[in-house]
Amino acid sequence: MLTLLLLIPILGVFTISTGISYESSYLNVSRIKTIALTTSIVNLFLSIIIFVLFDFSTNQFQFVQEYHEISSFDFYLGLDGLSIYFVMLTTIITPIALLSNWNSIKDNVRSYVIIILLLETLLLAVFLVLDMLLFYIFFESILPPLFILIGLFGSSNKVRASFYLFLYTLFGSLFLLLSILAMSSIMGTTDFDALYKTNFNYSTQLFLFYGIFIAFAVKTPTIFLNTWLLKAHVESPLGGSIILAAIVLKLSLYGIFRLILPLLPKASLDYTYIIYLIGVITIIYASFSTLRTIDVKELIAYSSVSHAAVYLIGVFSNTIQGIEGGIALGLAHGFVSSGLFICAGGILYDRSGTRLISYYRGIAQIMPLFSILFFILSLGNCGVPLTLNFVGEFMSLYGVFERLPLLGVFASSSIIFSAAYTIYMFNRIAFGGSFSKFFEANITDINKREFFILFTLVVFTVILGIYPAPILDGLHYSVSSLIYNN
């Protein structure tokens, strides 16, 4: 089943690249899009079947498939109670990313959908492999497709943005590779199951921790390491922004559960206060930057940095609430930031050709349906009760308070800041006088496709916010064993 999850998008890529002629007629283009969308929806159904069959009462890896000795490492696939949620997030977001750019990309459509489907396979592979070296290989292999995606389909400053993304992340991940090679040479294996039974001595743990944490701090991203994210988000096409915010930023969160917490428990406990300090500074810095930005897409990208810092410190709290909250906030951020990017970079930008907040005014008068959905997603971004973001943020901050109350107080400022910049942005776009004098033509309200995408994301955010049990109950056993086994 897990091999199928990886193979279905590859089959879609194969069909698109070989089965359809290269004439750029309207029929061909629509056929390419339809095949890509169908492929991603089939994958979504398959992941739902796996989720239904999954046994949450054990912390063992399930659906394990072994393919021994491919050159120097074993090719293992498996799922546990932590990774299944990231797999579900990936298969939900991919069709949304394809649908969001349905009409706006007119050239090179074939290349675009092939890159998105390739990214789906590579991201799923990161969450499914049970071998540390393979984890690193797939972790890095996401860079070339993203580099091409931003470089080909981005906006004005796209080449610079794609190089920023590529070089920053590649440099950070070199430290991860060194740590993995060190573990491999000490233990003689890169298999997760075998490594979880080991106990490295304290000084080794410290050095491994430095290497792995630098790589994940770049991917999260934390303060001083976040310039690549803003460039990549602002210049990226809409589908790229969605995948980047919803899934690629979660790779570091997932990596912490796989590499740092189980393998380096002493180092992660001793260095918690430094991670908290970095997290709190990131939250405050990103929030102030968000308040002064005038580009709506950049504002959402900065808010991603702030939320990422909240789930980072939640995960290092060493409490069940903090870790579960970190994962819940990661999933919620995936839904809400995707929705906000569609609102800002898709609907508003496609209709008006500008991303400057000052150009929009009184959108609620002419786009009432859009304004309602935009408002609900903005509330989600603030972490208002009855949204999944609230559940995740509350539990993350609760975990921080249990561990270090003083820094917990500063971290809680994220609640006030996120409300300030999100509602300020919404207010300037939706209200603030009569509809802007800068536009000659009227702007139409959202169509069926856009309504369907936004409504789906709103439903996930609100229903899981009112009833988060499907996530929290499923995580409980895996998170408990993660803490108590160390």
UniProtKB/TrEMBL annotation:
<keyword id="KW-0679">Respiratory chain</keyword>
<keyword id="KW-0520">NAD</keyword>
<keyword id="KW-0813">Transport</keyword>
<dbReference type="InterPro" id="IPR001750">
    <property type="entry name" value="ND/Mrp_TM"/>
</dbReference>
<feature type="transmembrane region" description="Helical">
    <location>
        <begin position="136"/>
        <end position="153"/>
    </location>
</feature>
<feature type="transmembrane region" description="Helical">
    <location>
        <begin position="34"/>
        <end position="54"/>
    </location>
</feature>
<feature type="transmembrane region" description="Helical">
    <location>
        <begin position="369"/>
        <end position="392"/>
    </location>
</feature>
<keyword id="KW-1133">Transmembrane helix</keyword>
<feature type="transmembrane region" description="Helical">
    <location>
        <begin position="207"/>
        <end position="230"/>
    </location>
</feature>
<feature type="transmembrane region" description="Helical">
    <location>
        <begin position="326"/>
        <end position="349"/>
    </location>
</feature>
<keyword id="KW-0496">Mitochondrion</keyword>
<dbReference type="InterPro" id="IPR003918">
    <property type="entry name" value="NADH_UbQ_OxRdtase"/>
</dbReference>
<feature type="transmembrane region" description="Helical">
    <location>
        <begin position="273"/>
        <end position="292"/>
    </location>
</feature>
<keyword id="KW-0812">Transmembrane</keyword>
<keyword id="KW-0472">Membrane</keyword>
<dbReference type="GO" id="GO:0015990">
    <property type="term" value="P:electron transport coupled proton transport"/>
</dbReference>
<comment type="similarity">
    <text>Belongs to the complex I subunit 4 family.</text>
</comment>
<dbReference type="GO" id="GO:0003954">
    <property type="term" value="F:NADH dehydrogenase activity"/>
</dbReference>
<dbReference type="GO" id="GO:0048039">
    <property type="term" value="F:ubiquinone binding"/>
</dbReference>
<dbReference type="GO" id="GO:0031966">
    <property type="term" value="C:mitochondrial membrane"/>
</dbReference>
<feature type="transmembrane region" description="Helical">
    <location>
        <begin position="242"/>
        <end position="261"/>
    </location>
</feature>
<feature type="transmembrane region" description="Helical">
    <location>
        <begin position="451"/>
        <end position="472"/>
    </location>
</feature>
<feature type="domain" description="NADH:quinone oxidoreductase/Mrp antiporter transmembrane">
    <location>
        <begin position="131"/>
        <end position="415"/>
    </location>
</feature>
<feature type="transmembrane region" description="Helical">
    <location>
        <begin position="404"/>
        <end position="430"/>
    </location>
</feature>
<feature type="transmembrane region" description="Helical">
    <location>
        <begin position="299"/>
        <end position="320"/>
    </location>
</feature>
<feature type="transmembrane region" description="Helical">
    <location>
        <begin position="165"/>
        <end position="187"/>
    </location>
</feature>
<feature type="transmembrane region" description="Helical">
    <location>
        <begin position="82"/>
        <end position="100"/>
    </location>
</feature>
<dbReference type="InterPro" id="IPR010227">
    <property type="entry name" value="NADH_Q_OxRdtase_chainM/4"/>
</dbReference>
<dbReference type="GO" id="GO:0042773">
    <property type="term" value="P:ATP synthesis coupled electron transport"/>
</dbReference>
<keyword id="KW-0830">Ubiquinone</keyword>
<feature type="transmembrane region" description="Helical">
    <location>
        <begin position="112"/>
        <end position="130"/>
    </location>
</feature>
<dbReference type="Pfam" id="PF00361">
    <property type="entry name" value="Proton_antipo_M"/>
</dbReference>
<protein>
    <recommendedName>
        <fullName>NADH-ubiquinone oxidoreductase chain 4</fullName>
        <ecNumber>7.1.1.2</ecNumber>
    </recommendedName>
</protein>
<feature type="transmembrane region" description="Helical">
    <location>
        <begin position="6"/>
        <end position="22"/>
    </location>
</feature>
<comment type="function">
    <text>Core subunit of the mitochondrial membrane respiratory chain NADH dehydrogenase (Complex I) that is believed to belong to the minimal assembly required for catalysis. Complex I functions in the transfer of electrons from NADH to the respiratory chain. The immediate electron acceptor for the enzyme is believed to be ubiquinone.</text>
</comment>
<comment type="function">
    <text>Core subunit of the mitochondrial membrane respiratory chain NADH dehydrogenase (Complex I) which catalyzes electron transfer from NADH through the respiratory chain, using ubiquinone as an electron acceptor. Essential for the catalytic activity and assembly of complex I.</text>
</comment>
<keyword id="KW-0249">Electron transport</keyword>
<dbReference type="GO" id="GO:0008137">
    <property type="term" value="F:NADH dehydrogenase (ubiquinone) activity"/>
</dbReference>
